[in-house]
Amino acid sequence: MPDILTTHSEEETTEAGRGLAAALSYGATVALVGDLGAGKTAFVRGLAAGLGLPPNNVSSPTFTLVQEYRGPVTLHHVDLYRITGTEAEELGLEELATGKAVVAIEWAEKLLRPIPGAITVRFEDLGGDDRRITIER
Ligand code: ADP
Ligand code: MG
């Protein structure tokens, strides 16, 4: 059964990400699915905070496809918005999830094949500041 919650502000979405971080093990991949402005990056900011990394560094990577935040755990933050599924294949994303690392992938719906064992987090804009977040593990 998925976990479903509704948030009413960006801060609440960040808190939801922080909550998921607590449940992640090393090598976890979090596949984030949802439209532009749905809250994926806000959620990743919470993941970072929950992993003991400075959340303020987390933004949508505009010119880099993968940003790496290093700390007690390394967070690889991927944004596939600007590339095709075929190009995404070539990034070798599965290999990022090794050692003391966690991978978060925005626009994961573009992947041609799902990443085995990934936790999927879906974001839906319900209008205004309301977002429905569905976590499938
Ligand atoms: P994405 O990465 O999915 O494109 P962002 O996290 O970058 O989305 O942006 C979400 C935008 O929506 C921000 O401008 C944020 O302030 C706004 N927002 C409003 N309500 C929420 C909410 N409940 N959760 C997350 N973001 C929200
Ligand atoms: Mg984003």
Structure description:
The chain has 137 residues and is of the alpha/beta class. The chain has one domain (3-136): P-loop containing nucleotide triphosphate hydrolases (Rossmann fold, 3-Layer(aba) Sandwich), CATH 3.40.50. The protein is built from 3 helices and 7 strands; from the N terminus they run βαβαββαβββ. It has helices spanning 10-21, 40-50, 85-89; strands at 3-7, 29-33, 66-69, 74-79, 101-106, 119-127, 130-136. The mean pLDDT is 95. Adenosine-5'-diphosphate (ADP) binds next to helix 1 and helix 2. Residues 7-10, 12-13, 34, 36-42, 60, 106, 129, 131 line the site of adenosine-5'-diphosphate (ADP).
Q: Assign a percent range to the helix content.
A: 10-25%
Can you identify the CATH class? Alpha Beta
What is the gyration radius calculated from CA atoms?
14 Å
Q: Looking at CATH, which topology would you report?
A: Rossmann fold
User: Pairing-aware structural class of the strands and helices?
Assistant: alpha/beta
CATH architectural designation:
3-Layer(aba) Sandwich
Largest sheet: 7 strands, mixed
Could you tell me the mean pLDDT?
95
**How many domains, in number, for the residues?**
1
Beta strand %: 25-35%
How many strands?
A: 7
Determine the N-to-C terminus distance: 8 Å
Strand order in the largest sheet:
1-7-6-2-5-4-3
Number of helices: 3
